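Quick sanity check, Alpha-1,3-glucosyltransferase:
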Amino acid sequence: MLETYKSKFFEVLLLSTCVKILLIPAYHSTDFEVHRNWLAIAHSLPLNRWYYDDTNEWTLDYPPLFAYFEWLLAKVAQFVDPEMLQLHNSNYVSKRTKYFQRFSVIIMDVVYACGAWRMLKAFRTLHIRYQPITAEALLLLNVGLLFIDHIHFQYNGFLFGVLLLSISCLLEDRFLLGCTVFATLLNLKHIYLYMAPAFGVYLLKFYCLDSKRSTFTSVLKLTIAGLVPFAISFGPFWQHLPQILSRLFPFRRGLTHSYWAPNFWALYNTADKVVAKALNMSIAEKYTSGIVQNYEHSVLPSVRPLATFILTIAAMLPILIKLLCYTTKSESKITFLRSVVLCSLSSFLFGWHVHEKAILMSLIPFCFLFFVHAQDAKYAFLLSAAGYYSLFPLLFDSDLIVIRYSLYLAYMTFMDAQMLRFYKTPPIMNLWEDLYIDGFVLLPLYDHYTVALVFYTFLCVITCTP
């Protein structure tokens, strides 16, 4: 049984790798230049200048451990194309550079594969019936990671691999190792701080407050386990901490990103604009200008970082209270998984300057809840349909229309089919949910065909009219 399981996993992994290789020639975003510039910074400058360099707008704004990762990549890159490591060589894209950076993402996905493998192994200890091939496909062929990492260009798969490793450790009751791995993740990308409340509450209740252990000793061990990665990461920069923190938490970038994430603040901005227009007031265009900066709203109260923080914590509290006060040992691990999903989703809905890509922080862990209960599967499907579709504007190149819709529809069709196949009594969508899902099929048809058809018909009528 185990050998069959292994062979299926590696077959799916091989298939996903082939798909990623096929996507190498595709369009890439400005994030490609961002990471090329970080390679140049790490290679060209002494360590104490990394977080001060402002040669161009793509300044280093990830934690030091990720900067060390870029430094290691640069050691290899210098043998591939030294020109990519020139600090003033902005927007440099050679064939060698493109292949190097694309393959670096594919190779680092080995970490994601390891995380998925360990997580699936840990998941089996929960005695939950699930289909390995389905879980492997949902994870290794995840359409969001294909969009963001292998077309748009980032290293999210690598980071999610570390996340899955940390969760798997906690599911296997390896608390100290899980804490260390999660702390390592925070030093690679600090956005995962939004998941920290779920990890913190779980470790507090089931490790520190465990009656079989000394609370003081447990807290001390856990503190040391969590601080070691921070000491290694930030130690060489201890004299530059204020500068690093200003880069990691740039509150001057404004409430929303240039392309709004589909969250509460997108609705808030829209409501402000609609009300201002209805009242014939001048509209503050800054938040629709595509420029990343602070701005004031026209009618509704302007939002500050503290307000978003309070709302985010308030949204997290119900699941955290349940995890701390109302969860038994037998159900704790599933509740922990739900708390990871809900904490990240709370931050996506109410956080400050949220990027649209952050929805993956909820969708990747949600893949495991797909097998827990029919209602979990239903909500995973609904959120996936909306979340992956919301990434389309990042793939705006016209050559990607067929690719993005093909990958999206294939993934969602597979997910829907497996949901209906796995549950003897499939979760029933109500009328509004059915219409909501249908909208993701009808909207592209309207966007790409109906509008064009009306336009060209109108153009023909005008040109043919004497």
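Posting the structure with no commentary besides this: The chain has two domains: 2-251+305-428, 429-466.
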